[in-house]
Design goal:
Number of strands: 17
Number of helices: 8
Distance between the termini: 48 Å
Helix content: 25-40%
Largest sheet: 5 strands, parallel
Oligomer: single chain
Structural class: alpha/beta
Order of helices and strands: EEEEHEEHEEEHEEEHEHEEHEHEH
């Protein structure tokens, strides 16, 4: 707990679990992500599908939701690549061009993203997810709101969570129908009081009307197609900072923000509870 030479949970430049901004972690575990480097064993492993994602992988995962689109009943026709290949093969190799009605996007996505605090560590990853969602053309509608740690009585249209960008959560529940697919992104780790207690609104100088878990319950009940993506792996032990993570992992469908996790989450969005 001290600040001289080697120690733990203090401001020593050598040790672990401390707060030195440019220290070297020796042994133990890192807690505050402030170490400049890590001394000790280096572990290598083969490529795997549970690694974190890039923009291309995000876009490929979002393509899963295209199965929710429908073929419009119009006179318009577009070239059917798969149908042409099948028909040509069935016709002994003689080209047989096929056409089909165009597909219309019906997917409406509501993206709720944790902003600030511990999520700064994942800012780059969340930026890629946001870019992939906004640039792909798989959604009929896409609406993005932000919160800090847990959705309360207000969501925000600006990631800086400014007072001018506040939108009442009740308004969101009243104006977005249950057909919206809801994707919550956050590390789910916070002070227990933020989840089970009434949060003090310093702007309005009063406590919130309900607890954080009550607003999450309202979102869960209103949107049957809702999942939580977590960039922080599910903790193996219970402590002060992981209690909310473990609780929410049981309360909501929660998936790791990895290749496999995102693909599974997209498939989960396609079915009702």
């Amino acid at each position: 707990g001290g600040s001289y030479w080697v120690g733990t949970q203090g401001r020593s430049p050598f040790g672990n679990s401390g707060w030195h901004p440019n220290g070297i972690r020796i042994g133990g575990v890192g807690r505050n992500r402030t170490a400049l480097s890590v001394a000790g064993e280096r572990k290598y492993r083969d490529f795997r599908r549970d690694n974190t994602l890039d923009t291309r992988q995000f876009q490929m995962a979002f393509r899963t939701l295209r199965q929710l689109s429908y073929q419009s009943d119009t006179a318009e026709r577009i070239f059917d690549v798969d149908g042409t290949i099948r028909a040509t093969a069935d016709n002994a190799g003689t080209l047989s061009v096929q056409y089909m009605p165009p597909r219309k996007n019906t997917v409406k996505l509501l993206l709720l993203m944790d902003s600030g605090g511990s999520m700064y560590h994942y800012a780059s990853l969340c930026s890629m997810l946001f870019q992939a969602a906004t640039e792909c053309n798989h959604f009929k509608e896409l609406h993005t709101y932000y919160f800090h740690n847990c959705p309360y009585e207000s969501l925000y249209s600006d990631p800086r969570l400014t007072y001018a960008s506040a939108v009442p959560t009740e308004w969101v529940l009243n104006n977005y129908d249950p057909e919206y697919r809801v994707l919550i992104v956050g590390d789910a780790e916070m002070n227990q009081g933020e989840l089970w207690g009434r949060l003090y609104d310093w702007r309005a100088r009063r406590y919130s009307e309900e607890t954080g878990i009550s607003y999450l319950t309202a979102l869960k009940n209103h949107f049957p197609h809702l999942v939580w993506l977590n960039p922080e792996p599910k903790p193996e032990t219970l402590n002060f900072w992981t209690e909310t993570h473990l609780y929410l992992a049981d309360f909501l469908p929660m998936f790791d923000l990895t290749v496999d996790g995102l693909e599974t989450a997209m498939k989960r969005l396609m079915v009702s509870r």
